[in-house]
Amino acid sequence: IDGTLMQEVRAYLNTEWANSTRALIGTDGGAKFGLASWAVALGCDTIGDAIQGEDYVATAAEIMALFQLLGAIAGALDGEQPVTPPGGLQDKVVDIAIDCKPAINFVMRTSIPHQRYRLYVFISEFTKRIRRAGVRLRYIWVPSHDKASPNFVIPTDYCEEQLRIVNRRADDEATSQLK
Questions:
Q1: What confidence score (pLDDT) does residue 68 get?
Q2: Do residues 2 and 49 lie in contact, with contact meaning Cβ atoms separated by under 8 Å?
Q3: Strands lying side by side in the sheet with 35-42
Q4: Residues facing residue 97 across a β-bridge
């Protein structure tokens, strides 16, 4: 897990949860010309990196973004300097805005996949650690690149523009890592 991301997630969650029960974070992955990248957008910061290896498809990059984020959240919650908001972690939520339904399906599946098995095992462990801490994860699908969709359900906690902005920022960071 990216160490800078873990530090940024810890600081962001402490700030967001000081006055709220929710924290909105965007993730994205990109692939182009034999390169792939992951990115996370939180608060005013975006963090991303190129992906090393042979799997250069966008969905794999989106899953890697979730792997990085969930690992960073788990580490921020139960690491050496855990997130400690007023009132504790109960009822806290991390809302993850993502534009890739297959990646959402991958992290929420209940059966073990044949492909990307090790990645799935790590993501499952991170998710368990987050839930054990009392934090709930909510994945919010946002149509990519400002596309309209009748399936886009905007939670009452947010407006469409908030979700699109965080998704766009993560997308821009993932794209910048492909150069």
A1: 97
A2: yes
A3: 45-50, 35-42, 22-32, 92-98, 135-141
A4: 26, 140
173: part of which helix (H) or strand (E)? helix 160-176
Q: What is the mean pLDDT of each run of 10 residues along the chain (179 residues)?
A: 94 95 97 92 95 82 96 94 89 97 92 81 96 97 94 95 97 94
Half-sphere exposure (CA, 13 Å, Cβ side) for 110?
0
Instruction: Indicate the residue type of 54.
Output: E
DSSP 83-135: ---TT-STTEEEEEEES-HHHHHHHH-SSPPSSSHHHHHHHHHHHHHHHHTTE
Whether the Cβ atoms of residue 162 and residue 24 lie closer than 8 Å to each other:
yes
DSSP state of 37: E
Lookup: tokens for 21: 């029960």
The one-letter amino acid code at 124 reads S
The full length of the chain comes to 179
Q: How many CA atoms within 13 Å lie on the side-chain side of 90?
A: 1
177 close to 28: Cβ distance less than 8 angstroms:
no
Instruction: Report the distance separating Cα 104 and Cα 2, nearest Å.
Output: 21
